[in-house]
Amino acid sequence: MRKHIPSILMLCVSALLTGCGSADKPALLEPPFGAVDGQAVRATELWPTLAQAGRVVVTDEGKALDVQDVTAEIGPGVWRMTVGNFWVVDVVRGQDGSVSALKEVEAAEERRVEYDPPLPLLPAELRAGEPIEFTSAVKLYNHANGALEATGECTATYKLLGTKSLGGGGLLLSDSRHELAYVVEVRRHYKLPLVGVEMHILSAYVPGEGPIAGRTVRVVKLLGLLPVVHEQSVERPR
């Protein structure tokens, strides 16, 4: 059960954490991972188009729900990703092909996080064994009334973990890239007043199709108290 606590610190938490629980783990995101050759894996290949509409299964607080997932253009070069009643994320594609978040909304908590510069969801390119780091300033707003509630910083690290077969979780034996999902790990660290938030995000992308599975684990540490953990997963039927 969620409670509204009108404290700046707890508003920071509720914007990035929406309860406790664990999610089922999509098999595509579990090791072992197949090796990736020395070539760079590009966002334009892994996430070729932002426009999409379909059904996904979101597991939150132990409950699996079949919801609508829609990404549609809302302005010149700006796309809105809406996943059921869970998340709304406005994204842009950079000239280098990267896909980045302008702002993220946790619908249940009516809190909005805005990034300046936009925070990559998927960098322009990744190579195995070569992590990339990116830092953005963040502002936390009450999404209902637009009031600014906190400012801080988010540092994200991106790593290409490897590949998984789409045929049941085993390692790929074929040379066809389109039988692979590429698994990318993102670790975000948010610095907000008196609160720290760590996010561990795993995403699986199929070349030519886009993201097909993801898992997010949030760990919130407030004033030296025991950390609070929340886990969600999402899978797109193929």
Query: Please, what is the average pLDDT?
Result: 84
Major sheet attributes: 12 strands, antiparallel, barrel
β-sheet strand percentage = over 45%
Q: Which class best fits the helix and strand makeup?
A: mainly beta
**Helix fraction by DSSP (H/I, runs of at least 4):** under 10%
Q: How far apart are the termini?
A: 33 Å
Number of strands: 14
Tally the helices: what do you get?
A: 2
Please tell me what the overall shape is.
globular
> What is the H/E string?
HEHEEEEEEEEEEEEE
Give the strand order of the largest sheet, numbering strands 1, 2, ... along the chain: 2-3-4-5-6-7-9-10-11-12-13-14
Rg, nearest Å: 17 Å
List segments where confidence is low: pLDDT < 50 over at least 5 consecutive residues: 1-23, 168-177
